[in-house]
Amino acid sequence: MKSRFLKHHYYSHGKLLLTSEYLVLDGAQALALPTKKGQHLDIKPIDQEAIIWRSYLSTGELWLDYKFSFPLDSNDGRGDAIYERLLSILQAAQKLNNSFLNTRQGYGIESTLEFQKDWGLGSSSTLLANIARWASVDPYKLLDMTFGGSGYDIACATTESALIYQKTNTTPIVTPVTYSPHFKEELYFVYLNKKQNSRESIQHYRSLDQNALAEERARFSRFTQDLLSCKSIVAFEKLLSEHEDNLSRILKTPTIKTQLFADYPRAIKSLGGWGGDFVLAIGTASQMDYFRNKGYDTIVPYKEMILGE
Asked: CATH for 184-305?
């Protein structure tokens, strides 16, 4: 069978970071959860000497429609930031695998998100993980050459369970774990109606005094282990609040509960980059009306969001 008839399909899960946001960049253990929804990448050879790339939103709407000419180091000068970012990923993959796209064989590519792209569940990381598998390259090296970051989202992309993630100077330590708290019926993810730029959040964290963070890494690793073994909702809420208070102290930034939900009676925890995306809210189904009454209508139960539930 000729290669022109071969098709390939790749799929990666989205991600949520439950503990050690920011500190995970410096080696703190973090509890990460893959989501049920992710991103598809479908690739088929075409008769054109080019890459025709189309990206679709979860609604089915065509979002991106690009043509990349060979060789990939050529630039059509379009000045489109997303185009340039996607091109840079393909170029980085070529550097890691010099046999990748080294002929003029063209491809028609479709990427399809299952979640809303502004939710912060990993539209970039799922794409990068899919491209890494297509190119047969190390996704963590590809990440370092492109987006940067801790890599926990890359670990979530290809896992089927919760995991403890620890960044190292070489290969990260990824430990699959069973995490299905018996009080998950009281766990909800509430979208804050705005996308957080994780790169800006990381830049702010990097401006902090790094010498003072060594003991903080140990502290947040303990939070991760304690949360993993937590058996009661009361203890769980206490741990979440302590985690928020400690990170607030480090970042010198008020917690999201202090900023937006000060009168809510239960625990609320930011996830990932502070200031946007989702928060984890503890409460009953009826208590979620508190958020709806404030205009936060995207509320996803834990069992609907997290893979394996």
From this structure: 3.30.70.890
